[in-house]
Amino acid sequence: MAEYVVAYGNLRRGLQYHQQYHGESVYHSTETIHGLKMYYNPEQDYPFVVRSEGSIVGEIYSVSQQQLQYIDAFTTLDNEFVREKITIGELNAWVYVYARERNPTAVEVPNGDWAAHQSHI
Questions:
Q1: 20 to 30 A from 99, CA-CA: which of 44, 49, 60, 78?
Q2: What is the domain count for the chain?
Q3: In what order do the strands lie in the sheet with 107-108?
Q4: Residue 102 domain boundaries
């Protein structure tokens, strides 16, 4: 059975890890997702989201159980992220939420859109 996953950082189309982790996945849509806020630590090259008032831009993909496990292995390394189920319209999808206390030097990503942010760096 296929699962839906939200890609909001470097797993989005055109970014660093998209091909490696979404090779056989099926793109569903790009959505504005409410109830999440995006940050990044200046010394790292990837964003993270926390549950908060705000919104992010994410791509929704249909993935197999095997792909989901592969993404889990990459994303939940060092227990930095946890996978949580969210509802986007009528769709239930997994999103990886930051599991640690937010570093005080973390910077909010404007408009919650990592791809747009990367294009301005």
A1: 60
A2: 1
A3: 81-88, 91-98, 3-7, 47-63, 26-40, 107-108
A4: 3-119
Residue whose C-alpha is closest to residue 61's, from 33, 83, 29, 107: 29
CA dihedral 88, 21, 49, 4 (to 10 degrees): 20
**CATH number for the domain that contains residue 20:** 3.10.490.10
